[in-house]
From TrEMBL:
This is Actin-like ATPase domain-containing protein. Belongs to the actin family. InterPro entries: Actin, ATPase_NBD. GO terms for cellular component: Ino80 complex. Transmembrane segments: none annotated. Residues 226-266, 312-333 are annotated as: Disordered. Residues 235-266 have a biased composition (Basic and acidic residues). It is found in: Nucleus.
Length: 549
């Protein structure tokens, strides 16, 4: 077997004479192996900043690749984290590191002092601005108090309304409210400067005009009464929301108390319930991810159902214009489930975002409880750890077992050889993995022995001395793999011996040179006269010639 630079030949030799008519060639050698590795690396690292030359690819094949004894099994476990440090080989390419200027301690201290000085200037500017705002508020408060005193001296309502309107106030209540706001703001600002914090006191609003009949109010009073009614409605709504919030808080506290009692009385049952709830949430999240993926495919069942729902909505619309007081009417919305159709047909980024956030929140809450109370549930068991990119097979394939820093020029200019180490040499045994429509060397050898040499009395002698030559046979484990593969397809009692040339790279050349140096070989040479007479395509036939091609 000769697997050289451009091709691989399987040549049966009987009685020291090669049967060239029975020779089979496989169009794969070291050159194709290097090109195959180069294509795999370009596909693996499409944005690799450096350029991998053909010579570098050949060096990578020679130094890092080896023949696997059980390719399918090794490939399925090659990216397992156990032992990946030994299987993954990191190749560092040249790069230019960004130079970071290291500052001295004096420079660092000066920079820190500069930052402190800048902070003090900002604090002084902020204090100056607060003082200016405080002066403006005090001036505005003084002006509002003067306006209140001026209104007390006015006796007619019309004159009061005119004065208030000229100063941008609707009524005296608004003026009084503004005075209270300014007093509170000034007091709060002064306390802040002194370092004192005063809680804001919420004053209960009053609505005196609501109990006054309309016939006792003038036009302006009726207008104020309407405004107070609206304000009271808003205030009552806020109070109801506050009460509901307190009830919900009390309900959650009660549920937490019952849950704590359940955990203390039956800890294992409580853990089992939490695990079941966690699994149900994870299943929902997986179903949502699967549905999103299916909606991206126009021919998927989910997308077809969505289009059917849209078509049904369009067909349910009335075709004629409704008339006032009559016409068609449907019952859409009578059942709350009717509105779910919009969730079914929604595919935008904002569809069901709240539900997804709730699922994530509930999952994190359950996992935090399990981490606290379940000794068998660890950080590695959480969904975040299981879906961590740095622990995925793809990360192991691209960057090995090590973390990857996208800002590091050193790591950007690295390639990791893992599955390629056994995939490239495997082609001579399984050419189909590289898209080559030919049989492997074991299948070729088996065909020669079982069919072409089936009737030869020297068939067993061929197997007793299988000679390997060529640089592409120098992979570690090549002999053992070939012996094991032949053993699997031949009878168990068959004697199989495999040996390798002392110098696989130059062995074929040395053999040809030794043959050409013999005197008997001169009769097989094409002389000048024969070349001029018969042309360049003329070749003399001899025992080591290539007349069969």
């Amino acid at each position: 077997m000769d697997s050289s630079y451009t091709s691989t030949h399987v040549i049966p030799v009987v009685n020291s004479k090669p049967l060239l008519s029975q020779t089979t060639r496989l169009n794969w050698g070291r050159f194709q192996s290097a090109q195959y590795l180069l294509k795999l690396l370009r596909l693996k690292y499409p944005t690799f900043p450096g350029k991998i030359s053909d010579n570098q690819a050949e060096d990578l094949v020679r130094e890092h690749c080896y023949v696997s004894q059980d390719y399918e099994t090794d490939l399925s476990h090659y990216l397992d984290w156990t032992g990946l440090e030994d299987r993954d080989h990191t190749v560092q390419f040249p790069y230019t590191e960004q130079i970071v200027v290291q500052k001295t301690e004096e420079e660092l201290a000066a920079a820190a002092e500069k930052r402190k000085e800048s902070g003090r200037r900002l604090q002084a500017q902020a204090a100056k601005m607060r003082l200016e705002k405080l002066k403006k508020k005090e001036e505005e408060l003084e002006w509002c108090i003067q306006l209140q005193g001026q209104l007390e001296e006015i006796t007619t309502k019309k004159e009061k309304a005119r004065v208030l309107e000229s100063n941008d106030f609707d009524d005296e209540n608004q003026l009084n409210k503004r005075v209270k706001e300014l007093e509170f703001a000034i007091k709060k600002a002064r306390n802040k400067d002194l370092g004192e914090v005063e809680e804001e006191q919420v004053e209960v609003p009053t609505f005196p005009l609501l109990d006054t009949p309309d016939d006792q109010l003038d036009e302006e009073g009726i207008k104020q009464k309407r405004q107070q009614r609206l304000m009271k409605s808003n205030y009552d709504a806020r109070q109801r929301a506050k009460i509901e919030k307190e009830k919900e808080k009390a309900r959650l506290a009660e549920e937490q108390r019952l849950d704590d009692e359940r955990r203390e009385t039956d800890p294992q049952g409580w853990i089992d319930e939490r695990r079941i709830a966690r699994q149900a949430i994870i299943q929902k999240m997986k179903d949502r991810e699967r549905l999103k993926a299916e909606l991206g495919n126009r021919k998927s069942l989910a997308n077809q159902m969505r289009m059917k729902s849209i078509a049904n909505l369009a067909s349910d619309a009335p075709t004629k214009k409704r008339r006032r007081g009559g016409g068609d009417d449907d019952t859409f919305g009578a059942d709350d489930a009717d509105w779910g159709v919009y969730r079914t047909i929604a595919t935008g980024e904002g569809s069901d975002d709240e539900e997804e956030e709730d699922l994530s929140k509930n999952l994190k809450e359950i996992e935090s409880q399990l981490l606290k109370h379940d000794p068998n549930f660890t950080e590695e068991s959480t969904r975040e750890a299981q879906t961590d990119w740095t622990k995925s097979i793809l990360h192991a394939f691209l960057h090995g077992p090590y973390p990857f820093d996208s800002e590091s020029q050193r790591e950007i200019n690295q390639i990791h050889l893992n599955v390629e180490r056994i995939r490239v040499p495997e082609v001579v045994f399984q050419p189909t993995i590289a898209g080559l429509d030919q049989a492997g060397i074991v299948e070729i050898a088996s065909n020669i022995l079982t069919e072409r040499l089936a009737d030869s009395p020297n068939r067993d002698d061929v197997l007793k001395d299988i000679f390997l030559t060529g640089g592409n046979t120098m992979f570690e484990g090549f002999e053992d793999r070939l012996r094991a593969e032949l053993r699997a397809v031949l009878p168990a009692e068959q004697t199989i011996q495999v040996r390798r040339a002392k110098d696989c790279v130059l062995d074929a050349w040395k053999g040809a040179a030794q043959w050409a140096s013999r005197k008997e070989a001169k009769k097989d040479f094409v002389t000048r006269q024969e070349f001029l007479e018969k042309g360049a395509e003329y070749i003399k036939e001899h025992d080591l010639g290539n007349a069969a091609y």
